[in-house]
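Standup notes, structure subgroup. Blocker cleared on the zinc ion input:
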Amino acid sequence: MDAQYEPVIGLEVHAQLLTRSKMFCRCGTTYAGAAANTHICPICAGFPGVLPVTNAHAVELATRVGIALSCEIAETSRFDRKHYPYPDLPKGYQVSQYDLPLASGGSVTLGDGEESRRIGIVRVHMEEDTGRLLHRTAPNGTVYSLVDLNRSGVPLLEIVSEPEIRSAAEAREYVMKLRQILRYIGASSGNMEEGALRCDANVSVRPFGEYVLGAKVEIKNLNSFRMIERAIDHEISRQIQALEAGTTIEQETRGWDEAAGVTLAQRTKEYASDYRYFSEPDLPPLTVSADRLRDVLGKLAELPDARRARLVLQYGVTSDDASVLTTTRETADYFEAVVAHLDGRAPARLAAVWVTGELFRLLNRDALSITDSRVTPTLLAELVEMVHSGEVNRGSGRAILEELYESGGSPRGIATERDLTQISDTDALAPVVRTVLDNNPRAVGEYFSGKQQVIGFLVGQVMKATGGTADSATVRALLLRELSEQPAEGPVSQ
Ligand code: ADP
Ligand code: MG
Ligand code: ZN
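Run returned:
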């Protein structure tokens, strides 16, 4: 990228709220796979003379989001009509919030500690989704479109950032963080493939040191992380090239052509006045009383950053492990359940290592989530305890976990059945150690001639002789003891 220009990015993210019914009617929001226009009623189909009623649960979820993003929640906000003609918009307007949004003035924190950066949130407002157009081609080649209103009236939240994002990678990180928060508090599934999270990116560039912002270009409908990053990167380069060539950038709306890897002009950007906003006369003002706010706040799930910090403080896990463990709320819950089952019988740090290391390796391999695994927190706790007490060694622990994961069972059952219980008592190991020393005179000779690292080889031989079940620390200690008792001159001869 050209070092003389600074990219400026502001994102508008639309998130579908996790409600059972639509924003202003009782139609269901689960219609994936259903025939077109089977989840509609006169309200969401835009018939005249109907009376919409605000979905209280949607308001609660939106309030949670506002709080989670440290916004100020308006005690009274308002719904407005945003007019524009489009075939998937049956009323000819979308109910949204314009000058009085539910929440304003928050932030999202990216990164951790010294590296952290805050991106300001301008506003969070509620609105209803539109229907969908299905484009078809008839056998004779005529192209036509069908309208499906199943999605019409589904509750959406629009979250608008300040123009404070400075790169495509940071834009991606911002959306990931936002999605993580939405998921933690149960506000949205955040599923981009299903369209439950969609993003418009506003991009401009300006010469470094310039205070005034350049004209912004809005790229519509970016619905994967890859698209967000590619489209913004491309748009930044395009604008820099245009400026270098002496062209002025006009405010406009562009689309992203995934196959070609370019943004394409769609229309010159509309301005607020084009929408003829006016307040929705069929809906009362949206009120969130102080009591209501306190109630929502009291029930709010712990947020990812707070939870990450707590895991470090409370359990002494490393901050990297804490980040991995708090990626999703389910993982953090799982880890804390393991720790609760351990009840101090092994350090939580060790449990963290087993979850983020061995268990994640298996889950990632099979693209499973932690809640799909056969290895319940109780079972993992039992295993961690066995490794910690020396009942089995780490290698056997891994084998047991793999079997638990593949076929279920219990850690102790598997250990007994597969004879993996660790041999750590000296009496049982001493004869094996002596045999190994007798059988490896050459290694012993090397040891006495100063090559101390052969001890590793000898430990390995004993481990092999015990089928991997010996405690390697005990083996090492026994070997050193035996060797120190050997007559030095004896084994030197080779
Ligand atoms: P509009 O009224 O056109 O929707 P807004 O002022 O509401 O414009 O901003 C919409 C989004 O565009 C916000 O996320 C904001 O941060 C971002 N934005 C505004 N100006 C710029 C700019 N010059 N460059 C990049 N992004 C911008
Ligand atoms: Mg806008
Ligand atoms: Zn309806």
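Discussed briefly. The longest strand covers residues 5-16.
Next: hand off to the docking folks.
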